[in-house]
């Protein structure tokens, strides 16, 4: 069925303007001043803002950590994504120790295929580098996974050493892949954790105290140097500190083309949360990197506004407070790291970015949708309201005010770190390839229709 969205403020690649959008056969068929010339559903969008569907760069759905499965699988996580205006999710498929790339990818297809309500693609996270992976990388890229992730943190499980990272990035340069890295110095974290536990410092707040900002800045500096030597396109995942941001600006000043992702929690939540309330209050925000200070947040907002920070993910990695996070009641090392955020990423960025005059509407769309689509090889199919693009459209009421309550969210988790926040701007309807999947804020109960997206190599952002 064809659909005409009339009279909204449409954020196009050329800027925001009053326009009508005509949707047919899953695509945007026309955009401008239009009148219905055939039978189609017409929706009055006057007073509303129309955005391209959000592209989420960083999720962990149906991930197993320390024998615990994340609260959200692809089914609940993708419904939450849609409710929050995200129509495309890039999740971290993972090949664990001694697994081929193909094995990790087929495992993730088993988790996602047929259960996912939004469109989705995979990055591939790797915990090692060897000749077999070296041989496999070109084919993996040709088959539509053009971005790889490594960890410089989590010593003993996920971390790779600098030599392996360098070799992987050299190969990535040859095959045109992008490498994203979790930048914290895992060796020093392990040392600080051992020292803390040796002194009996096992409460949740010590998680953060073992991960000072300088460990992120050091790892970013090292990663950029390695990336520059290897010549691969590369980006930092979930940047959290001003020190790290400054290191990235120095890298760019000497010619590095490094891209930058941050996450909503690092823009909005404060490290004070580790010193308030009981175990449960603190365990909610045990994540890596940890939450930081007001001056870090200001640096990140400035970086977003100036165009230096490229996209915002959620690092959605949800564990139940009761039954999962509380495994670490007597030892912070046993608290599974991460928190929920897939559903509120766009609303938070709109409310605290656009409605508070920190970001223009166009810049907001860049960081929640367009830049990720371009960088990760989905543009202009995704990330744009333009003729020929997929009709993934978010209809937002820019003046509506509402309050975050976990019980109203589609996320499966038993808490949200954003509980009680008052937000401006509410997502009304969402279209996925022309089909209305969210109506008046509610996900329409249909069978999952999300499609897997094989991605191209993507483009540089500057
Ligand atoms: Zn992550």
Explain what the structure shows.
Helices cover 31% and strands 25% of the residues. With 462 residues, the protein is an alpha/beta fold. A hairpin with a 2-residue loop joins β18 and β19 (442-443). α4 (162-175) packs across α7 (213-230) and α7 (213-230) packs parallel to α8. The two termini are 39 Å apart. Bound molecules: zinc ion. Zinc ion is lined by residues 58, 60, 315, 317. Residues 58, 60, 315, 317 line the site of zinc ion.
Portion of residues in beta strands equals: 25-35%
Number of strands: 19
**Biggest β-sheet: count, sense, barrel?**
9 strands, mixed
Ligands, ions, cofactors = zinc ion
Choose one word for the global shape: globular
Oligomeric form: single chain
- The end-to-end span amounts to 39 Å
Radius of gyration: 21 Å
User: How much helix is in the residues?
Assistant: 25-40%
Q: Helix- and strand-based class?
A: alpha/beta
Number of helices: 13
Low-confidence stretches: none
Mean pLDDT: 97
């Amino acid at each position: 069925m064809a659909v005409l969205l009339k009279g909204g403020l449409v954020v196009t690649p050329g800027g925001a303007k009053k326009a009508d959008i005509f949707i047919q056969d899953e695509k945007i068929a026309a955009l401008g001043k239009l009148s219905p010339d055939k039978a189609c559903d017409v929706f009055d969008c006057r007073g509303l803002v129309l955005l391209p569907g959000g592209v989420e760069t960083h999720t962990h759905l149906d991930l197993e950590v320390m024998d615990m499965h994340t609260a959200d699988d692809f089914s609940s996580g993708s419904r939450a994504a849609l409710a929050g205006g995200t129509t495309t999710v890039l999740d971290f498929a993972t090949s664990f120790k001694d697994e081929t790339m193909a094995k990790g990818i087929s495992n993730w297809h088993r988790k996602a295929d047929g259960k996912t309500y939004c469109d989705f693609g995979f990055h591939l996270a790797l915990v090692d580098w060897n000749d077999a992976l070296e041989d496999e990388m070109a084919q993996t890229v040709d088959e539509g996974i053009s971005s790889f992730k490594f960890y410089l943190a989590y010593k003993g499980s996920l971390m790779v050493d600098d030599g392996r990272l360098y070799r992987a990035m050299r190969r990535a340069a040859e095959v045109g892949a992008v490498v994203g890295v979790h930048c914290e110095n895992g060796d020093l974290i392990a040392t600080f954790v051992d020292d803390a536990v040796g002194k009996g410092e096992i409460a949740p707040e010590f998680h953060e105290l073992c991960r000072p900002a300088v460990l992120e800045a050091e790892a970013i500096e090292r990663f950029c140097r390695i990336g520059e030597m290897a010549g691969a396109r590369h980006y930092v995942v979930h940047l959290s500190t001003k020190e790290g941001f400054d290191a990235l600006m120095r890298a760019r000043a000497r010619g590095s083309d490094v891209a930058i992702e941050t996450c909503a929690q690092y823009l909005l939540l404060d490290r004070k949360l580790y010193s308030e309330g009981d175990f449960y209050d603190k365990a909610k925000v045990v994540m890596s990197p940890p939450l930081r200070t007001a001056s870090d947040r200001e640096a990140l907002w400035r970086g977003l506004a100036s165009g230096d920070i490229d996209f915002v993910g959620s690092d959605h990695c949800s564990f139940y407070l009761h039954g999962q996070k509380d495994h670490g009641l007597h030892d912070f090392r046993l608290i599974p790291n991460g928190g929920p955020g897939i559903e509120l990423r766009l609303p938070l960025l709109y409310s605290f970015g656009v409605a508070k005059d920190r970001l223009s509407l166009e810049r907001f769309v860049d960081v929640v949708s367009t830049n990720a689509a371009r960088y990760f090889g989905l543009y202009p199919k995704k990330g744009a309201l333009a003729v020929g693009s997929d009709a993934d459209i978010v209809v937002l009421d820019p003046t509506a005010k509402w309050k975050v309550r976990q019980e109203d969210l589609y996320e499966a988790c038993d808490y949200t770190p954003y509980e009680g926040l008052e937000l401006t701007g509410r997502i009304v309807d969402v279209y996925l390839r022309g089909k209305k999947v969210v109506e008046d804020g509610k996900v329409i109960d249909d069978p999952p229709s999300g499609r897997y997206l094989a991605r191209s190599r993507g483009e540089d952002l500057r």
